[in-house]
């Protein structure tokens, strides 16, 4: 009995299929590439600029934070590039450079690295950067927007998360165009 293994507790991921983080990041980048390329085709050079700046600044923030925190460099695993690409795809093509750089800082440093990096962050870093219902958008971001849309709501709801708001706006746009 004294040689029995006790319960071993470790951080996520708890199940592992043997793939490496680098492989998974490459698959995510390849999977997101068609949507990113279509966005560049649709919106042109400004969309390419936002995507390139988002990926580059996410990688630089990760590199800078790991150097300052004296952690092993994790830029090579590709996760910062995935975070930057996904964040850039959520931004409008007209987003100001400082919005992109600040957002990637929040995603990488606040949403990911402060919690200990990959597998230790409780929230998706891109979701942290996009914002929460309680904080909403700052007046500077609202001023930089091309247009503002207000969704009338009844009851005690003061805000919607980004995906729900987008679904409501897309539904209304389709409804108005088709009928």
* Spatial gap, N to C terminus: 74 Å
| Average residue pLDDT | 79
Mind describing the biggest β-sheet? none
Strand content: under 5%
Q: Give the tally of β-strands.
A: 0
The residue fraction in helices comes out at: 55-70%
Structural class: mainly alpha
Report the principal-axis shape. globular
Highlighted features:
mainly alpha, 57% helix, single chain, 179 residues
Describe the structure.
By secondary structure, the protein is mainly α. The chain has a domain at 21-133. 57% of the residues lie in helices and 0% in strands. The chain contains seven helices and no strands. The protein has helices at 21-43, 45-68, 79-90, 97-110, 125-130, 139-144, 162-178. The longest helix has 24 residues, at 45-68. The protein is globular.
Could you write a compact summary of the structure shown?
The chain is mainly alpha-helical and 179 residues long. The chain has seven helices and no strands.
Secondary-structure blueprint of this entry?
Blueprint: H1 21-43, H2 45-68, H3 79-90, H4 97-110, H5 125-130, H6 139-144, H7 162-178
Helix pairs in contact: 1-2, 1-3, 2-3, 2-4, 3-4
